[in-house]
Write a structure and sequence with these properties.
By secondary structure, this protein is α+β, with helices and mostly antiparallel strands. It folds into 2 domains: 41 residues, no CATH class; 55 residues, HU Protein, Chain A. The chain is 41% helix and 24% strand. It contains 4 helices and 5 strands, in the order ααβββββαα. The strands form 2 sheets. It has a 3-stranded antiparallel sheet with strand order 1-2-5. A two-stranded antiparallel ribbon has the order 3-4. α1 crosses α2. The relative contact order is 0.09.
Amino acid sequence: MQKTLTKADIIDAVLSTSSLNRREAKLVVDKLVDLLCVSLQKDHEILLTGFGKFECYGKSERRGRNPQTSESMLLPARKVVVFRTSRIFRKELNPDEQQGFSDDDESNALD
């Protein structure tokens, strides 16, 4: 079963690796989360080198369907947040993954 890293876990990690007390560590984590949220609300990208990038973009309104009643409906425009991993982190997650074809591999794939 996967473990979920919670805000409390992050506070504990900050607490164990710094000289801050629990209240100060919680304040640091809360301020960081607030900064991230406000930045995304202002449509700013958040780039964490070696980890990835958070982006917020708008989706236009579209037609949808209520799965219970099959009634067609118009879904309103909305903003969504996406996360894209950096190449460095992606390689760490998937060390055995092939990063593309070399010229020799490409010619063999066509045979």
